Amino acid sequence: MVQEGRSILLIYTGGTIGMHEDPVKGALKPFDFTKIMQHLPEIRGYGYKIESVSFDPPIDSSDIDTATWIKIAEIIEENYHLFDGFVILHGTDTMAYSASAMSFMLEDLAKPVIFTGAQLPLGALRTDGKENMITSIMIAAAKEYGKPVVPEVCIYFESKLSRGNRTSKVNTEHFNAFQSPNYPYLAKAGVHLVYNREDVRIPGKFPELKVHKNLCTEIAILKLFPGINGAHLDAILGMEGLKGIILETYGAGNAPTGSWFLNRIKKALDRGIIVLDVSQCNIGSVEMGLYETSRKLLNAGVISGYDTTTEAAITKMMVLLGQGLTIAEVKMLLNKSLKGEFTHL
Ligand code: ASP
User: Fold this and answer.
1) Of the residues 19, 36, 93, 95, which should be mutated to test ligand 1's pocket, given the most ligand atoms within 8 Å of the CB?
2) Ligand 1 site, residue 91, Cβ cutoff 6 A
3) pTM for this one?
4) Is omega for the bond preceding 57 within 30 degrees of 0, making it cis?
5) Is 61 close to ligand 1, i.e. is its CB under 6 Å away?
6) CATH number of the structural domain spanning residue 160
7) Which residues, at least 6 apart from 82, have a Cβ–Cβ distance to it below 8 Å?
8) Ligand 1 atom closest to Cα of 93?
9) What residue numbers bound the domain in which 283 lies?
10) 91, 113, 119, 278: least surrounded by Cβ within 10 Å?
């Protein structure tokens, strides 16, 4: 369906979608955005009003940092009332982090913000970038009864639209690079573009976009592995200024029960460090208290992240800790699904 007259802002940050091979070095490097549009002449005939903003220089998404997220959020904020939707072209490597961050930074968002990219550059014959970009534009422009169909931060990739903060990159090789294992896809694109309207988040009645621009980076991810020792914990928990950690636990949220481990976690909690328990498993949820090994964490004051992805957990913590809230308030909000980032039955 053609969405005549709909206006879309494309924000090109970089990534494989807009890369070309350096003739000298042989490695992929970004090229400028005008060339990207040359690869999509089809789009011009579809009646969309498309404007674009390009990062200069475009960046590989491995170089994305919190300053970049603030830049993306500010571009959306400045243009919020001028466009029906936003498409962000982004490298796949950290796209799930950026989409998660944006979902927490853009408070009361009521328009589509669709991240997409490609495994093969637009200039390559077998590129996946063309379909990804064109369908993302259609989704960002889609309205029903005057309202956007998907007023959320999403990732569109290889025929599937997923909630950004539910998504992880799972494949370096296949076009099907992203998965949303714990939440249904919000749309699937085959011959028809079919929306799963039931699972889309609908904003409040009179939402007014507010952008959180302070992000706290005094946080860490502590991934457990058999053999992890006290020195490893001390190195992470002893980080200067540390305010919070994402504890990547085993299975349904389990961790070692030895005092060498628990005492260190308890001491960190006593120092006011917030500890959020997420699972190393992609599918399923943390269930603190199910086993003795997680009951001890719960009793010590560790918060359950339920089925939150690590990407969503770390970015949610960055945004919450950046707001000048008390530790009790941050803990309370971590325990709440703010943007549909976890399911707790
Ligand atoms: N290294 C690239 C990036 O994330 C990979 C990609 O775009 O797929 O920017």
Assistant:
1) 93
2) yes
3) 0.94
4) yes
5) yes
6) 3.40.50.1170
7) 7, 9
8) 4
9) 219-334
10) 119
